[in-house]
UniProtKB/TrEMBL annotation:
Name listed for the protein in its UniProt record: Nucleoside triphosphate pyrophosphatase
Presence of keyword Hydrolase: yes
Entry-linked Pfam families: Maf
Active site: 75
Protein family (similarity comment): Belongs to the Maf family.
Keywords, ordered alphabetically: Cytoplasm, Hydrolase, Nucleotide metabolism
Cofactors required: a divalent metal cation
Gene3D superfamilies to which the protein is assigned, alphabetical: 3.90.950.10
Length: 198
C-alpha cells in the first residue's frame, strides 16, 4: 500500500539519521538536503520558540533551492530550567553539562516545519521531559569513555537510542520527539496538505 501521494520524495533539510529513519519507517520517501543556516542569527528566546524558528528557517532555506518541492525542516532544543543547553564543543564540556543535568529534570523541544516555494505551510513543536538519574563522577567518566566523541554531536551529550539510555531514571514524552522529530504532528500535517493518504 503506497501512502505517499506526491510524485517526488519529501525533502528533509537535516543531516539527522534519526529523523530520516523515523520518516522512512513511516513509509515516507525522503531526499536528504541539509540546510546550512546561521543558527545564531535566528530569533526565538526560549526552547520551544527557538526550535520552531530554526525548523522554519531550515525548511525555507532548503525550499529556496528546490522550487515546487515540499520540504521538512526540523530542530531540537534543550532547556534546563530557564537556560538553554547547547551541544558541547569538547568531551570536557560534555562532562560539565552532564554533571549539571544529573539528578535533575530537563526538557527537549522538537520542532518541525513544512515549506514550499518560500512559504511555511505548517509548523509544530512537541516537548518531552527527561529525568536524569544521579550518578557519580566515576560512572560519568566511564560513560564518556564509552561514548567517545559522539557526545559532542547531540545536545546534552547523549543518544537515548544508544548508551545514553543508561543516564536516565524516567522519561515522559513521545519517543520520536525525543529523537528530534514531532512525528505524529508531522504525519497529520502531511495528511492535511494532501501529501499522505488519510
Amino acid at each position: 500500500m503506497a501512502l505517499w501521494r506526491l510524485t517526488e520524495p519529501l525533502i528533509l533539510a537535516s543531516r539527522s539519521t534519526a529523523r530520516r529513519d523515523l520518516l522512512q519507517a513511516a513509509a515516507i520517501p525522503v531526499e536528504i538536503a541539509p540546510a546550512d543556516i546561521d543558527e545564531r542569527a535566528v530569533a526565538g528566546s526560549e526552547g520551544a520558540a527557538l526550535a520552531l524558528d530554526l525548523a522554519a528557517a531550515k525548511a525555507l532555506a532548503a525550499a529556496a533551492k528546490a522550487p515546487g518541492r515540499l520540504v521538512l525542516g526540523a530542530d531540537q532544543t534543550m532547556s534546563f530550567g530557564p537556560d538553554l543547553i547547547h551541544k558541547a564543543a569538547t568531551v570536557a564540556e560534555a562532562h560539565e553539562i552532564l554533571g549539571l543535568l544529573r539528578g535533575n529534570t530537563h526538557h527537549l523541544h522538537s520542532a518541525a516545519a513544512l515549506a514550499r516555494d518560500g512559504k511555511v505551510l505548517w509548523r509544530g513543536v512537541d516537548r518531552a521531559e527527561l529525568v536524569m538519574r544521579w550518578f557519580d563522577d566515576h560512572f560519568l567518566d566511564l560513560y564518556l569513555d564509552a561514548a567517545g566523541p559522539s557526545v559532542t554531536e547531540t545536545v546534552g551529550g547523549y543518544r537515548l537510542e544508544g548508551l545514553g539510555i543508561h543516564l536516565f531514571e524516567r522519561i515522559v514524552g513521545d519517543h520520536a520527539t525525543i529523537l528530534g522529530l514531532p512525528l505524529l504532528a508531522v504525519l497529520a500535517a502531511l495528511r492535511n496538505l494532501g501529501a499522505l493518504e488519510g
